[in-house]
Specification:
Keywords: Transferase. One of its GO terms (molecular function) is transferase activity. It holds the Pfam family DUF913. By secondary structure, the protein is an all-alpha fold. Among the domains are: 164 residues, Leucine-rich Repeat Variant, CATH 1.25.10; 139 residues.
């Protein structure tokens, strides 16, 4: 592409979107080598390209909640940290009257004023000093040693300080790059300060346009989200919070402002709070810089955010509020991080009333909200995993029944037996692979949450709701249709069944009446699906069934242990066995150690496996010798 050619915007946006999806699903993001290209795109004169580049960077640096307490979570953005700092600073500081909250509210108010019959009053309110400041290019730089973009020096101490001051930038006819070139030529701006100057030009020109201002508000928030999670941005963050000590409160105010701030900006502000909390919890060094982050989850702010979450959930199905899913998603991500990052998170969050706001999501059957339901279930599961009182509250509010019923509906949908009353999924959606993937993720989360809710260490007693048999029925359906669910869900279902029996062996009779043990044994004798997780859970499931005499007899009569012969001698199990042979061997050893009556059968099967493997090897050797 030559300089005369226009930038292929659509192609760039599509490439960035693909990169974003890859990074969101990538396990080795630290090996990413495209930072130099993204750095160039941050200087684009098209704000949509800048937004897309920043969204790609967000996917790159995002801290996985499941790895919050592991080493090596933060990814370096070294070449672009100074660019991110310039973009994150937005129009200026709160002390100047140009904090992120006041700028967003002023421009949204100005936009509303433009739709009013009498916009002059609003213009006087919002368009005075603040609009003059926001649309003025004021840039200070030092001709001495390079400092952080936008950093100023004391005029009395340095004679090298240069100031560029141009008011009413929105009236300039030239484009951003032309204005930059004029300033560089006129004021002899060094290369290291030019991106910061370009950033100030872009923000100043955007201030008096509500639409453009909204885009640059997104750019500012996205830049902060990336910067706060960049592993080598300590100096930049220190400088940022020195100039913006009230930034956290500014973000919380944005989230709370339901009437005056667009939903997309509120969601980004919430994601910024979550990113800050994740970085704070993941690194001791980062925690020192972000010491003020503890106020995010302080009692008062936590209650405020829970109130916002409750309102957003109640508005999910409102046709007048299309931004609610974005807000709910951002808030759920934050509270999941809060539960995982707090040492006493279970008790703390339970005390703040976190369980009740999430329960309505378990009843939400809108297919487009499935990812929100899954996130809510994960949050509840982690909450109950850490807190026995939270489990008690969850059970008292009927949460276990809601989980069981939702699991039953989703299982029926997957196998195609849901009736028209319960199912809201059309044939077109059923055929969608993405939807099926989301359904299976939700089923896994539901099974895990049921394990924590019904049989957690602090609540060993069996659920008092004996009328609801939807959980055992769902387990039977999974065992009977294992090919449709896969090894991961099979593993989760076997784990739940085993925990139920281990915690309360007397419930075996009830489970047997509902066909759960028989369905599991049939799934084993018919041939375990070639999945590592499916294979290693079978001995545990058989061991749980053998705690009851009827179950032990069923295992012996069906020769269920013979699944080991195919597992160790069939080619189709070669790959899963390569991944889990040690785990499977340990599980079999534990089964035979605890169930003495199966030892002789187990020994015979092991000898048979050895003989088959050795005879196969002898055949190969003879065949080779013949050739």
């Amino acid at each position: 592409m030559t300089e005369a050619d226009p930038m292929p915007k659509n192609a760039i946006l599509k490439i960035l979107r693909v990169m974003q999806i890859i990074l969101e699903n990538c396990q080795n993001r630290s090996s990413f080598t495209g930072l130099a290209h993204l750095k160039l795109l941050l200087a684009s004169s098209d704000p949509e390209i800048v937004v897309a580049a920043l969204e790609t960077l967000v996917a790159l640096v995002k801290i996985n909640p499941s790895k919050l307490h592991m080493n090596g979570k933060l990814i370096s953005c070294g070449p672009i940290n100074t660019h991110l700092l310039s973009l994150a600073q937005g129009w200026g500081s709160k002390e100047e009257g140009l904090g992120i909250y006041s700028c967003v509210v002023a421009n949204e108010g100005n936009h509303q004023g433009g739709l009013s019959l009498f916009p002059v009053d609003l213009e006087n309110k919002y368009g005075g000093t603040q609009h003059r400041l926001g649309s003025t290019l004021h840039f200070e730089y030092n001709l001495g040693p390079a400092q952080y973009p936008g950093q100023t020096s004391d005029k009395g101490k340095s004679s090298n300080l240069c100031v560029i001051h141009i008011p009413d930038m929105h009236l300039q006819k030239e484009d951003d790059l032309s204005i930059l070139k004029q300033c560089v030529d006129k004021f002899n701006v060094p290369p290291e300060h030019r991106f910061a100057l370009l950033t100030r030009i872009r923000y100043a020109r955007a201030f008096n346009s509500a639409r453009t201002c909204r885009i640059y508000s997104r750019i500012s928030l996205l830049s902060f989200i990336v910067l706060v999670q960049s592993s080598d941005a300590h100096d930049e963050l220190t400088y940022f919070f020195t100039n913006e000590p009230e930034y956290i409160n500014e973000l919380i105010r944005l989230v709370r402002s339901e009437d005056s701030v667009p939903g997309s900006i509120r969601a980004l502000a919430m994601l910024a709070l979550g990113a800050q909390l994740a970085a704070y919890a993941s690194s001791h060094e980062r925690a020192r810089i972000l010491s003020g982050s503890s106020i995010i989850s302080a009692g008062g702010n936590r209650m405020v955010l829970l109130s916002v979450l409750q309102k957003a959930i109640s508005s999910l199905n409102s046709l007048n509020d299309t931004s609610s899913p974005l807000i709910v998603d951002a808030l759920l991500q934050f509270f999941l991080l809060h539960v995982l990052s707090s040492s006493s998170s279970g008790t703390t969050v339970r005390g703040s009333g976190m369980v009740p706001p999430l329960l309505p999501l378990l009843r939400d059957n809108d297919p487009s909200h499935m990812h929100l339901v899954c996130l809510a279930v994960k949050t509840l599961q982690k909450l109950m995993e850490y807190s026995s009182p939270a489990v008690s509250l969850f059970k008292d509010l009927g949460g276990v029944e809601l989980l069981s019923q939702r699991l039953h509906v989703e299982v029926q949908r997957v196998i195609g037996t849901a009736d028209g009353h319960n199912s809201m999924v059309t044939d077109a959606v059923k055929s969608d692979d993405n939807h099926m993937y989301s359904q299976k993720r939700l089923i896994k989360a539901l099974l895990k949450a049921l394990g924590s809710a019904t049989y957690s260490p602090g609540n060993p007693a069996r659920s008092q709701s004996s009328q609801d048999n939807s959980l055992p029925v769902s387990l039977s359906l999974i065992f009977q249709n294992v090919d449709k669910f896969g090894g991961d869900i099979y593993f989760s279902a076997v784990t739940v069944m085993s925990e139920i029996i281990h915690k309360d062996p007397t419930c075996f009779i009830t489970l047997k009446e509902l066909g759960v043990p028989d369905a599991f044994i049939s799934s084993v004798t018919a041939g375990v699906i070639p999945s590592c997780k499916a294979l290693i859970c079978v001995p545990n499931g058989l061991g749980a069934i053998c705690l009851n005499n009827q179950g032990l007899e069923a295992v012996r009569e069906t020769s269920a242990l013979r699944f080991l012969v195919d597992t160790f001698t069939s080619r189709k199990y070669l790959i899963p066995m390569n991944e889990g042979v040690v785990l499977l061997a340990n599980a079999v050893e534990e089964l035979l150690r605890h169930v003495q009556s199966l030892r002789s059968i187990g020994v015979d099967i092991i000898i048979e496996i050895i003989n088959k493997l050795s005879s196969s090897q002898e055949y190969k050797n003879n065949e080779t010798a013949t050739l």
